[in-house]
Specification:
This protein is an alpha+beta fold. It has 13 helices and 12 strands. The chain has 2 domains: 166 residues, no CATH class; 158 residues, no CATH class. Helix 1 crosses helix 11, helix 2 packs antiparallel against helix 8 and helix 2 packs across helix 11.
Amino acid sequence: MIVENVLHRPIRTLVSILAVAIEVGMVMLVVGMTHGLLNEYAKRVEGVGADVMIQPPNASFFFGLSSAPMPVKIADRLAELPHVLAVTPVLFQSYSTGGVPIIVYGIDMPSWNRVTGGFVYLQGGPFRGPNDILVDDIYARDNHIRLGQTLNVYQDFQVVGIVEHGKGSRLFIPLATAQDMAGAHDKASIFYVKCVDPAYTDSVIASVRQLLPNYTVLSIKQFMTLVTSNDLPALTAFITALIAVAVCIGFLVIFLSMYTTITERTREIGILKSLGASKAYIIQVILREAALLCLVGIVAGIVGTIVAARVIQSSFPTISVDLTPLWGLRAAALALAGALLGAFYPAFRAARLDPVDALAYE
């Protein structure tokens, strides 16, 4: 009977299933993209190979959100600290391409090589002049960039090298050029510090904090923990708002669908009650119908999200989508809860119908 009721109005059934699928997809896809971008961002910073990072006072660990007030000369003082092997300054330049924000690294190649071990060049080589730029292989593939091509990043640069991805940024320009572009001469946004041995990281951090007491000093491990945490206030608020919108969509569509169903089946409900069906049985039938619609919508939403994630990653390789079974279960639970809540009032209303009035209903 429940299956027949669902198939009786196929268009309305498809709309209900689609609403639940959209609800599940919204939660899984947006959360997956958010966590994917954060995790990928953190891995690229870790890929620099440094042990300690130093930023200006009260700086955000989301690079590019703060200015560059640190003198480059601080690097010389840092290099003199015990157990420090190398220090490299980096100046950030925010850039957006295709709606995707990118932090361009202005680097000093000699010190960068000492800290990171150098780039793996897939094509070309290092900077030869102030207007040269390096791009990583993912960015080059996504934007169809070739060696020797002119690339406009606020000004024209010549692509002299395509490097293996995973070291900080996707675009690299000479530090002096970045300073000229930003009007921040002899300044840096961050210092990456390489210890002679990772076991000395805590000792180096303590020394840096004595030397620069007001600066933000973190180990790369601490940075990874902060960025990949599920307790980021802004991220939690964003996800909560998204979930609320998604649940409201599912709740309202199921509510309207079930409410319309009750109106259309008043006589049928009256017949069931006249044959001895209890209020609990009527409520159970309506809720089971809503649950069936929801389960089909959940499956459709999960399959659609997986397909959408693959399409996004194939079309935009620089965007990472991290779908997890945990958020799939959470999205399914939220969709089911919203559907049952949406169906409860119509079910309760149906159970309260008087059999005589229901049979006389036209």
